[in-house]
Structures
1.
Amino acid sequence: MQQPSSLGDSAAIATLSPEPLSAELVIIGHGMAAQKLLEQLVTLVSNRRLAWPVLVIGEEPCLPYNRIQLSPLLAGEVNVSSLTSQTDDWFKRHGITRLSGDPVVKIKRDTRQLIMLSGRRLAYQRLIIATGSRPALPLSLPASRQAWPEGLMGFRELKDVEQMRVACSKGGHALVIGGGLLGLEAAEGLRKRGLDVTLLQRSERLMNRQLDDTAAGLLAQALESRGLHIITNAHLDQWLQASDGRITGVRLTDGRELKADLTVAATGIRPEMSLAQAAGLRCQRAICVDDHLRTSDPHIHALGECCEVDGETFGLIEPIWAQIEVLARQLLELPTAPYRNAPLATRLKVSGIDLYSCGELVPASGDEVLVYQDFTLNDYRRLLLRDNRLIGAVLYGDVSAGNALFEALKSGTPLAEIREDLLFSPEEALERLEATAPPPSDDPNTALRDTAHTPPDSLEEAA
Ligand SMILES: Cc1cc2nc3c(=O)[nH]c(=O)nc-3n(C[C@H](O)[C@H](O)[C@H](O)COP(=O)(O)OP(=O)(O)OC[C@H]3O[C@@H](n4cnc5c(N)ncnc54)[C@H](O)[C@@H]3O)c2cc1C
C-alpha cells in the first residue's frame, strides 16, 4: 500500500552505478532512533553540515515519522502531516543522503558492503543498525504462510494505520489481541472510528505489568463505559480462517469463537535482528551491544529496539534517547559517559484516561504499600516503598505527581521525612524535601566515566 503523499513518498534515490555508493557513516533503518541520532549529530555540530558523508536507508517508503503518534493518528486526533519533523531539504542541507523504500537484505562484513533489495550495493566505513522491531504474533501463522494473511495485522507502521482506516470505513467488528499499551491504544482508536471492538487480554487484568488490580479495574470500567468489550483470561487456541485463507477471528481454548472483520495483533514486539544474525554478529534476544552501543564487530553499532544492553531490550523511547546521546557524542569524538539501563515510566495515550506507572509493581517481603483512593473523583494512587525509598508508583486519574515521583524513584531519595504527605500532596512534599536537601557533592567519577572509545581512522580525520 502507498504511504500518504504528505509524508513524501518520493525517495531520495541515488543514481545507480556499477560502483557501490559509499559513505563514511551508513545507518540501516530510518525510524525514530535513526532520525533522532541524525538530529543530535546536527545539533552537536551547531546546525552545520556534517563533516563526513552520511547515508540513511529506510525500508518504509516515506520520510521518517513519529511512530508514537500513530495512536492519536488512528484515533483521528492528529493529522498525518504533523507526524514528521523534517523535510527533504533538511537532509540535503546537512549532507545526509536518504534512501527509502528499499531495504537492506545483506551485510557483507568482510568487504564492508551492504546489498539492498533492488540489488544496489553500498560501502560503509562505519555502520549503525537501527532496524527497530516487528510485531510479535500471538499464535503461529496458518501453515505455509510466510507473510501475515489478509484480515490480520500488526500496529507498527504508518501503512498499518492507513489499512485500519480503510477497514474502519467499511464498519464491522474488530478484535484486538493484547491488553497492553499498544493494544489499548489500537482498540480505542478503532472504536473511535466506528468499529465494534473486542479486546482480548491473556492475563486476568489490563496492562498487567504496569497496573495493579484496582487501577486496571478502573481502566477497564472507563473503557467499557465507552463501548469497548474486554475479555480477560482469554487464551488463544487457533485462528479462524475463510476458505481463501483470510483470518476471520480466533477460537479461545474455552471453545468460544470470536469472529471479526479485522484482527489486530498487539501482543508485543520482536527485535528486527535478522540482518545482524545472518552477518554473524552476536545476538541473543536482540543484537548484543556494550555500553557504547558497539556490536561484536568494531565497525558496527546497533541502536534502539533492535539492540540489547546487559540482557535488556527496549520498547519505549526514553532509553533510546539516552543511547543516542552516547552514540552521537562518540561518533563526533566527544567525551561521553557509558549508556546505563534505568527505570522507566509508562503513560497511556488514550484521551480522557490518565494513568502513570513506574518502577516495580509487586511488593517483596518487608516492602510497604501506601494506597489512596477517591471513589467520587476516580482518583487512585499506590506507592511501593522499600527502606523508605520509592521503588514503584501507580497513578490513575490525577497523574500530575507522576514525574516528581519518578524522579524520586530514580534518585533513591529517602522519604521518611515526608511519608505522611506522600500520598495526599506528593508534588509539594517532594519539593519541600528537595529544598531542604544538602547540595550534591561534586564527584568527578559520576560525571564522565568513559571517554576511551576511538572511532575508525577515517571518521577521526573527518571530525
Ligand atoms: C503505535 C505505537 C505507539 C507507541 N507509543 C509509544 C509511547 O507512547 N511512548 C514510547 O516511549 N514509545 C512508544 N512506542 C514505541 C516507539 O515508537 C519505539 O520505541 C521507537 O519507534 C523505536 O525506535 P527504533 O528506531 O528503534 O525503531 P523504529 O522506529 O521501528 O524504526 C526502525 C525502522 O527500521 C526499518 N527497517 C527494518 N529493517 C530494515 C532493513 N533491513 N532495511 C532498511 N530499513 C529497515 C523499519 O521499517 C523502521 O522504519 C510506540 C510504538 C507504536 C508502534
2.
Amino acid sequence: MKFTIKLCLCCAALFSVCGCAAKEPAPLHTPTWDITAHTTAVSTTTITTQSAQATTIRAARKVAIDAGHQARGNNELEPVGPGATESKAKVSSGTQGVSTGVPEYRLTLDVSKKLRDILLSRGYEVFMIRESHDMNISNRERAQLADQAGADILVRVHANGSENPEDNGLMMVAPTPNSPFVPQLYRSSRRLADDILAEMLKITGARDKGVWETDTMSGINWSSIPVVLVEMGYMSNPAEDERMQQAAYQEKLAEGMANGIDRFFE
Ligand SMILES: [Zn+2]
C-alpha cells in the first residue's frame, strides 16, 4: 500500500490543478421496488408483507457512494484530518489499468453506478458524491458532503495499484482503533469493512487482501459516519485489470458491496 500511495501522489503531481465544475450533488432517488412482481398466487399476502417490511427497513437507510478520484487530480493541500498539522493533496488522479489503460476514476464511477442501482432496487436511499468525471471535490469535501446529505454510511469506491504486477485481490481500508480523528467510528467502520469484504470475496472469488487499518486517509479522517474505502482489485495486475473492465465482473463487485451493506444493517 505504501507503493500505492507513492504512485497516487506521483500521478497527482503530473496533473495540473483543475478548476472544473462546481460540486453538484445528485438529487436523491426514490426507491421503485415493485413488490407485486415478487408475489405468487399461493402466498401473496405473506410475501408482500415480508417484502414491504424489508423495503421499509432499507428505505430508512441512506448510503453515500463516493466514486474515487475525478478526471484531474487537485494538488492543492488540505489537512489529513480535523486539527491535523499534516496535509495531503486534495484529491489525487488515481492509478490506471496497466493492460487496458483505463483510468481509475472511470472504473470507480462505472461500478459506483451499478452499486447505486442495486441499492435503489433494494429500497435504500442513495447519495452519489459524483456522477460525472469533470468534478473538483476534495477528499475532505467528499466526506463532509456525505454527512450533509444525511447518509448513514460512506462507501468509497477505489482500485489498487502496486509496483509488483502479481499483487491482486480485494482490500478494505478503515481507520485504526487509536485514530486521532475518528476513534468513535472505528468499531462500526471495521464491521462495515469486514461485512463488505466477506460478501465481495464470496461473490467474486477474488484473493483476500484483508482490511488495512490506517489514519492516513483524508476521506476517512474527515468522516462523521461509518466509512470504508473499497479497493476492488489491482489495476497494476494485467489479468485483474482486464477482469475489472468486464461488465459481468463489475456487476459482481457491486452486488458483493450491496450484500455487505445489507449484512451491516441486519
Ligand atoms: Zn484510488
3.
Amino acid sequence: MGENGVGRKQSGQTWQRFVTDLVIELCNEQGARSFSRQTLLAGKAEAIKKFSPDAQTPEQTISRVLQELRDKDIIGFSERGIYTLLKPAILDGELPDSIQLLAQDRGTHKVEYIHETYARNRGWVLAAKEKYGCQCLYPKCENGFNKPDGSPYIEVHHIIPLFEGGEDSLWNLVTVCAHHHKMAHFAEVPVQNRLRDVFLGIVERGDYDPVRD
Ligand SMILES: [Zn+2]
Ligand SMILES: [Zn+2]
C-alpha cells in the first residue's frame, strides 16, 4: 500500500468514509467498478485491520456500511451479489486532469462516455477487445480506421450504462467505432434504444461472427 493508502486510521474518520475510500482504491487497483463483498474483504483485509484493530466483527460492520452506501446511491448492487461503484463517475487515473475538470460540469451520460473513452487500458476494456477484436460490432459497419502506428482504432461501450445498473463485465461491453459509440450516447432516444437492442442481441446470442456481421 502506498503512502496515500486508506489503511491508516485517522482520528474522527468515519467507517462510511473509510469504506468508500477503500472501495475506490480497490476499483482503481483492479481497473473495474464491479466487486464482490468477498473481494473487498480479502483484498483489503490488512487496511481494515489497521483502521480498526479492536473491531470484533469488522465483516459485519463492512456489510452494514455497504448497505448505507447503497442507500446513498454511491454503490449499486445486483442480484448476483456484485456491487458496482457508481460515484465518483470517473476514477482517479482514468483521465488527464484537464478532462476530469471538464467532465464535472457535464451530465452523467456524457461523463460515462468520457470515462469509457479514456479508460481504454483498463482490464475489462482489454477483455472486450480480446473477445471481439478491433471491429465495431454494429452490423456491417465500415467506419474503422487505423492510428498512426497502423493499429486499428476502437472504443468500448457499456450497453447498459453503469448508472442504470450495468456492470463493468464482459456481458455488458461491446467494441464500437467512434461514430456508433457517439450515436449510442447522443442520438435521439429511439435510435439509442435501437442500438442498445442490436448490441444486446449480439452479446446475448453469443455467436458473434466478424465476417457475417
Ligand atoms: Zn459508451
Ligand atoms: Zn460502427
